[in-house]
Specification:
Layout: E1 6-13, E2 23-28, E3 50-55, H1 58-78, E4 87-96, E5 102-105, E6 108-113, H2 128-139, E7 150-160, E8 164-171, H3 178-184, H4 190-194
Parallel strand pairs: 4-7
Antiparallel strand pairs: 1-8, 2-3, 4-8, 5-6
Helix pairs in contact: 1-2
């Protein structure tokens, strides 16, 4: 049983961004045919065949590009190469606190969190699934070859005055289903079966 290895650790400054949905718009095969309210284009010629073009959310593209750049630079500095083994990904999403979390003085917000909001967790959008999706897509083909390699995930969403995303990627430990091991009469190390316990 091999010990887990740290593949990479990096931080992305700024508000964590969730994976955005693809956009779409109606296009026509003829050039300049961009008036969707008419059967004719701006030059008075009949429009060509209509089709729907989809494209990724621009904010997501910029965010994933920035994450990929930071991860790539860290990977190069660490002297490691793209990982092809199963991995554990740890993600800490530090979300920007809303203004109502802070105290005010003379009508101005001051950088002091109200006691009632200390320790409160963010239960608003974006959800952690989409935060994870954006991050995984950004590191795929950079740190890992395929996001199917992610077999263990630890993710947390927390409020902070200093929004950022902290990421650690480790090689995953071996694990065995304890019920299967018992059924097959396998003598597995205890730590291999304990990993799958929810307690």
């Amino acid at each position: 049983m091999s010990d887990p290895e740290l593949v990479i650790r990096f931080e992305v400054p700024g508000q964590p961004l969730a994976k955005g949905t693809h956009r779409s718009k109606v296009m026509y095969t003829k050039k300049y045919a961009n008036d969707v309210t008419s059967n004719y284009n701006v030059n008075g010629h009949k429009k060509g065949r209509a089709y729907v073009m989809t494209y990724p959310d621009p904010d997501t593209v910029r965010y994933e590009s920035r994450v990929a750049s930071i991860a790539s630079e860290e990977l190069i500095q660490s002297g490691r190469i793209m990982e092809y083994r199963a991995v554990l990904i740890k993600m800490l999403f530090y979300m920007q606190r809303p203004q109502n979390h802070f105290k005010t003085k003379n009508g101005e917000i001051i950088p002091v969190v109200k006691p009632a909001f200390i320790g409160v967790r963010p239960v608003t959008k974006p959800d952690d699934d989409n935060l994870e999706k954006a991050l995984k897509d950004a590191i795929t083909k950079i740190v890992i070859h395929d996001d199917n390699q992610s077999v263990d995930v630890v993710r947390r969403k927390v409020y902070s005055m200093f929004p950022r995303t902290e990421v650690e990627i480790w090689t995953a430990e071996d694990a065995v289903d304890p019920r299967e091991a018992k059924h097959l009469g396998l003598q597995c190390p205890q730590e291999m079966t304990e990993q799958l316990s929810l307690t």
